[in-house]
Amino acid sequence: MSETEDALDPSTDRRLERLRTALDSGRLQRVQRLLHSLPTAEIALLLESMPIGERQVVWGLVDPEDRGEVLVHVAEEVRDGLIREMPIEELVAATEGLEVDDLADLIENLPETVTQQLLRSMDLENRQRLEAVLSYPPDSAGGLMNTDTVTVRPDVSIDVVLRYLRLRGSLPEHTDALFVVDRTGRYLGVVSVNRLLTLDPELVIASVMDTEIRPIEVTASATEVAKQFENLDLVSAPVVNEQGILVGRITVDDVMDVVREEADHSLMSMAGLDEEEDLFAPILRRTRRRAIWLGVNLITAFIAARVVGLFEASIEQMVALAVLMPVVASMGGIAGSQTLVLTIRGLALGSIGTSNARSLLYKELAVAFANGVFFGVIVAVVTALWFGNLMLGLVIALALALNQINGVLTGVWLPLLLRKLGIDPALAGSVVLTTFTDTGGFFMLLGLGTLILL
Predict the structure, then answer these.
(1) How do residues 103-115 score in pLDDT, each as one tens digit?
(2) What pTM did the predictor assign?
(3) Burial class (CB in 10 A: 0-12, 13-18, 19+), 77
(4) 26 φ, ψ to 5°?
(5) Strand order in the sheet with 187-192
(6) Which of 80, 272, 336, 377 is 20 to 30 A from 24, comparing alpha carbons?
(7) How many other C-beta atoms lie within 10 A of the C-beta of residue 87?
């Protein structure tokens, strides 16, 4: 397969295999040519997928002109490792030419000496743009925006605008529209490039601009920005300050980064992991991070064990109760996890709040009751045939149905409570849910067994 075909191959695993083959054989020029043919985002993915030793070798073969873009795309922990190994002059060279919003994302990971040298090398206009972006939180519209905007006045003609654009010679990436502002820089509307190219050149901008496109407040969260882009199918959007002055724009590539990061965060947080973690980080560092959540889980396991210990005498008299405990706990856990994921997603999308949380709870309780009755009957029949005890089947059916309801209740109220407390529901939700469904399931089964059977 040719190197061009390699670049088009969608399989990262195959690319890694070919890179490793070339590295092992010492064919570094082939590796370099392959890297040069890939987009910077693909190079970043390959670097994240490599052990640290191979990563350093391949990083040395990346085109110096691409290194800044690659650093923007790799996970933060991988980025830190690459930056530590780079001389100051290479770091400064790598960051030259980056878009202001990309540079703002990168600069907080750079050593102070590099940051100062980089700022000194920038012209006044770009330094002011960078400082403007850095003055806002990174997860806000101000932190996402790029200050490189093209603006026009409402009282000029399309022909004047077209001549102005020809004089510019180029437009910023993802420019699908120009922003219309008044003399003070206040945002008035947008005029699409499509309209500029197809309408009568004698028309004035005020008569063809779209005033329905609402600007994004500079303080809006990244999640709110992503929702607006999704709902309105935007390619770019204006960003304004508290006075309505246009301060920048956000483009769809920035929003895609937000969507990906939020998806990674939700997935990794369920396991107590960080989406920026290096897949091939040193063993001691990874062990220390995971030990925290393993320790939390161990505490919850002891809580569940303590509940079981309260019914030790009952278990000794009827061992079947111990055999059936995992059935009740796991069924409640699955029901709770399904509701938990739905609630967390609803909170993230803004479709669940205090106004409709009760309606969601009622709906989920109805689902839990229906499933509890259905699976309770099945388990009761199996248990009665297995152990030859009809009352034991009734006990586990009741316990299973009650724990289904327990799991659903926890799956709804827990994320809402954690959100009120300022805790990420995706980070702590699954651990707390497991505690409630395990201990609740054990307590219900053993408690009912003690009351009814013994």
Answers:
(1) 877 877 777 777 7
(2) 0.61
(3) middle
(4) 80, 15
(5) 151-152, 177-181, 187-192
(6) 80
(7) 9
